[in-house]
Amino acid sequence: MWFLGAGASASAGLPTAMDMIWEFKQKLFVSQSRGPTDAVANLSQLNVRARLQAHIDSLEHLPPSEAPDEYAALFESVYPAESDRRAFLDAKLAGAKPSYGHMALATLMRGRRTRLVWTTNFDTLIADACAKIFDTTSALTTVALDAPDLAERAIADKRWPVEIKLHGDFRSRRLKNTDDELRHQDAQLRQALVNSCERYGLVVIGYSGRDNSIMDALEEAVERPSAFPAGLFWLHREGGAPLQRVGRLLAHAVEKGVEAFFVSFDNFDEILRDLIRLIDGLETKTLGDFAMERRRWSRVPNRQGRRGWPIVRLNAIPVIGVPNTCRRVVCQIGGTSEVREMVEKAGVEVLAVRSQFGVLAFGADSDVRTAFEACDITEFDLHALEARRLWRDSTERGLLCDALIKAFERNRSLRLVGGHRRHLAPANPRDAVWKPLKKLVHTLDGTIGGHPDLRWHEGIVARLDWAHDQLWLLIEPRTVFEGVTDENKAVAANFSRERTVRRYNRELNQIIEFWTRHLAGDENEIRALNVGDGVDAVFRLSSLTGYSWRILS
Question: Which domain covers residue 336, as residue numbers?
Answer without folding.
Answer: 325-384
